[in-house]
User: What shape does this take?
Amino acid sequence: MTGTRTISRRRFFAISGTVAGGLVVAWSIPGCAATRSRRAFTPSGFVQIDPDGQITITAKNPDMGQGVKTSLPMYVAEELDADWASVRVVQADLNRDRYGGQGSGGSDNTPSEWQRLHEAGAIARALLVTAAAGRWGVDAAACETEPGFVVHRASEKRASFGSLATDAAQLPVPAKAPPLKDPSTYRLIGTGVRGVDVPAIVRGTPLYGIDVRIPGMLHAVIERCPVHGGRPAQVDSARALAVPGVRQVVTLTGLDNPTHLRPGVAVVADSTWAAEQGRKALAVTWDEGAGAAESSGHLLEQFRALEAGGGLKAIRTAGHVDSAWRAAATKVELTFQQPFLAHATLEPQNCTAHLRDGHCEIWGPLQMPTSGAPVIANAVGMPVEAVSIHITRLGGGFGRRLLSDYAAEAAVVSKLVAAPVQVIWSREDDIRHDYYRPAGFHHVRAGLDGRGSLSVWHHRLLTLSRNRYRQSTNGPEMTEIYGLLVPQSADPADTYDPDLVPTRIRNCRLEYGDFPTTVPTGAWRAPAHNFNAFVIESVLDELVHRGKVDPLMLRSGFLGDRPVIPKTDDASVPYDPRREQNVLRLALEKAGRQPLAMHWGRGWAAHYTFGSYAAVVAEVSVDGNRLAVERLVAALDVGLPVNPLTLEAQTQGGALDGLSAALFGEITIDRGRTVQSSFDGYRLLRNSEAPDVEVHITPSREKPMGYGEIALPPVAPAVANAIFRATGRRITRLPFAAAGFEIGAPRSYGL
Amino acid sequence: MSSFTLSVNGSTRTVDVAPDTPLLWVLRDRLDMRGTKFGCGRGFCGACTVHFDGVATRSCQTPVAGAVGHAITTIEGLGAGALHPLQQAWIDEDVPQCGYCQAGQLMTAAALLAKTPHPTDGEIVAALAGNLCRCATYVRIRRAVRRASNAMAGRTP
Assistant: This one.
């Protein structure tokens, strides 16, 4: 989910007037000559101020529940000094020239959009101030702003933003962005702002991709080969076409890259229900292909054989792990099994497309419109400029919608039937044909020396690679090693990888192996981190137990007490072990040290994900085989917290998502097929099973980082470590339900 | 195809559909009431919850023929002009994340409070245990139900 993290600071801003005489500030990014030549005309902008005082801010990136439709406009409003009550937020369409890259992933929006959105707000504010100063004949430097007003204290003059908008629109673009506010003067950032879509959501207003309606729109469902990697060989559509309401049956051939478009048979009808009835009447003979022999058991055998065969690649090495292992005073050797996970967004995959007159118009829940557009264009054989995308609200993402296959499907079906079409996946389609969190196998040997310091760490990761599945030219390990411990390197380029944790472990080796498979894989919330943290924190806990060492001392010993790479003004923020230690200390302190009842246990874990730090303390009770997670305490350091209300929500939801996956999450493969098909076989956490989540945020002025994925990784190991404290049993295979536990309800909900 | 006359949010609506068509798809595809959501089509997730005569009912499991004669209420009709106290509590507690399940959560909670105005914590989670939230907004859902219950009783939360 990480892409290029640094963005150019050089940007071009444009201002213009609106038809009604208001002010519009838009930006364009370098290299988009077309925009610069069109600078004078910006029909809809980035921030617009109308003469009546209404302020409209465009939300450029998709919101799937992580709250960026609220938090990113807060950046603009802050620098503008807008009164939030007069702000209206509208969702942007895909517009390469005006907005640059549009997408949400890797918890990256919070840091990467910071500078330019603040600048957009600051320019608008400067123009309003200049307009006011001109009107009053005073020095602009003597003017201030209050939310919604420019004021000149000496003359007690005061003008609303709306009354200045028309004048401001006549002013030239400032040569450079004015200085940004000192964070200590923020009025909006750092306060809890409620989600801008919430009033519409609670009324049932149509907001989502599945709610899109286009005149003349048909409804389609797609039957796909039950065996991953298979394709239709023969299609008998006669009975399907006889179902009332069914219009056409068309075959999708798929593309070579299965993350772009997979083969299938689409039934197109007047309604969703008719399309589903038509699908039931289809008779398709499948070419199952090489994947028909694949199974979860076979994959595990292959992981073990790959390790035994010695065909692993050394990713990072320091010292001599074999001799250090022999010499260690305390040894822990554990293996871990990482199951496939499904995303199961509650809004099933869907998209609406209308292909006509050389133009492909898309409406849908796209998480990555910018990278989706060329996928859609390629699928229908059009230039990318012919694709336009209207971004709807997303009914969940969790990484599933980083891929745009469902949009390509809609475009292709629309092309084949020459009509606007909405493609909808059933829940069964979604669970059976997801791009799963890769399954894997970990083998770790770790040891303490005689003084209780971590002297050896040898981690072998055998997994499936989503980079390999998506045919990326990047190394297959690149998407799977996030968050793993590596030795510090003499080469700063090696050490300065924001997705790895540089350590001072003298004998440290990370090895990796994978192989191709037909089972589809993709990113799942806090990708790779979501299981790697479980492995690391389980081993550390076992070392603490066996070596009888202080957990915080152990960590400070190998993580150090300062950043390995000094801070620069680069967009990335180097890993700082002190911040991780601080959140762990905070979570432990807030959880308290009071003794627990018999058969109860308290466990903890910490992890660094995409520039932010989280620690979780879990309390569990284990009565016989009945496991209840009684309480979760989370502490986070995300830098400057942008919207504490959303941060709390994402921490609660992220922690409980991690708990749901740890308790129940497992997709199994048999005869090349996914065994589970709906929420009976693929269980999600229920309200009654969800403990209270106490959220504690470290106050910080550090660079603001994202928080959509941060609380999730430490949860599974915190619970495993708590189970160990309660029972002496070390669980190394997820989910916990597969270890024979029945999942019970907590005794209290903290209401 | 057959003709069915339904009572939805106090209005009489007639649709011409196959008798086995689930009420969910009649609402969404025929009556253009898109607040009721499709989540699984099997009754597992609760996103499609509506009221039949005040009782929380899975619209994906109810053929349109079985909906005739019941007073159907959907999320669009929950507040009857103004916001229902639950909808206001959902706003005040900033409950939704992606928001997709929330219509079903609200309909289930409204049926609970209509029958049990002062539910215990256990009654709240028992009533809502059948409504999955993939974003796991459960903590705030519980708080919001409590807040609405207090508001309806004239107490400050």
